[in-house]
Amino acid sequence: MRSALTLVLVLAACSAPNPPVDAGEPGTDGGREDAGTQDAGTQDAGTQDAGTQDAGTQDAGTQDAGVDAGRCATAPRDDAGGYTALTVIGDTGSGDGIYDPSLFYEADGGGGFMTYTSVPTAALVHTRIAFSQDHGTSWVFLGDVNVPKLVTLATSDRAVCDAGTCDGLIVHETSSIIADLTDPVPARRFKVFTHTYFFSAVSGINYPLGYLSMFTTAFPLPDAGWVETKLLGWPSSSPFSSLDAGQNLATDPRLSGMRDCLLLTEPGAVMRGSTIDLVVACLVPSAALGEIYMETRLLRSEDHGATWSFVSTLVNRSEALALGASGGLGPQASGPALFTWRGAEYLSITPNGPVGAAGNGYRGCLVLGFSDLDAGTLEKCGGAPVVKKAFLGFDRAFTGPCTFAEGATSPGMLVPTADLTATPKFRINASKQDPL
């Protein structure tokens, strides 16, 4: 679940060639165009305000989630006209808004938790947690899971630090929360996964100079002490990315299926008994294709997060294309989240596409079903994963990634949206709709 802010900044600047796709084409999550062919100056950013867009202009009946209309079922889509902005009582300092929600709220739970990205500014993004006792009707701020930290970082990339070292901030975003109640260490029973990376005032966002982290505590009380574990690292221009990481994508044999990943981001976890399934967005550079595309991959831990193994690629590049993903960087199956609904597990992914003045970015969420979660395989039709429901939000608005928990019956699927002309720029919407 990458912050919409960072995606807007990165994707809007990219213009690698990629064939445009008709914005009204069925099954394309609301439309896909090449970010490089879009003239940001000709698109009125003001029309991207969720409050001013007419959800009724999108015909749910024309949104065919399959790639073969003759054989594949048409997926229903959301009605964005019913969205309401979710607020967190007592949250101060999130001046640019809140984003990237994750929920732990059991179906019969009397209370539940939501982690989210607080966006004071691009330089200060971090993870916060809120609590609800009314099935998600209202949320109360509990505290910070992590905060930005000053650091002096060494790197061989002079574009990041022209002197070889520079000062910046370690920031955290795209969180995912689980309760691992069988963990034999009580202090680690609540777990929050994030993408942790380096931000510099000079070079800005540096996704590759990062790692996947896990923050743990016994219970998310307001004064809970969250302890960070550096889970998964990777090679980069700085030892910061891999030094002291529990596992390295480049060298650990259990992660051999992740060797081509430049980095991992947007972790999304779910508990099944004592097993943790973790979906991640894997950024894959391809010189042959002239792209840096994104795939959704599945990892698994059987020892409460101590070690991880590669299971499968859930949505590959060609399947992302079949689901309508497109943009200047290449097709992206990003923003993955796992959730349970009526006894079965589902995956939500966010393809990329046209988002008004921003050029290219998140264009809604597609709910996919598993044929075999143990094996890491999705239901497919016509060569693409079957879309159970599409949460596309408002036409060409920056929308997603989405999340859901059965106990949060009031807000239903949470659908974030971003509008850089609005105040605040980032918001989490309660769709008030079931995920299927």
The secondary-structure class comes to mainly beta
Described by strand count, sense and barrel closure, the largest sheet is: 6 strands, mixed
Tell me what portion of residues adopts beta-strand conformation: 35-45%
Order of helices and strands: HEEEEEEEEEEEEEEEEHEEEEEEEEEEE
Task: Supply the number of structural domains.
Answer: 1
Number of strands: 27
CATH class: Mainly Beta
CATH topology: Tachylectin-2, Chain A
Label this structure with key terms.
3% helix, six-stranded mixed sheet, six-stranded antiparallel sheet, mainly beta, 2 helices, Tachylectin-2, Chain A
Commentary on this structure:
- The chain is mostly beta strands.
- It has one domain (4-48, 61-430): Tachylectin-2, Chain A.
- 3% of the residues lie in helices and 41% in strands.
- The protein has helices spanning 4-11, 317-322, and strands spanning 84-85, 88-89, 98-104, 112-118, 126-132, 139-144, 149-154, 165-179, 190-200, 204-217, 227-233, 247-248, 263-272, 275-286, 291-301, 309-315, 333-341, 344-354, 360-362, 365-372, 377-378, 380-381, 384-385, 387-391, 398-399, 414-418, 426-430.
- It has a six-stranded mixed sheet with strand order 7-8-9-10-11-12, with no helix packed on it.
- A hairpin with a 4-residue loop joins strand 20 (365-372) and strand 21.
- The chain is globular and about 55 Å long.
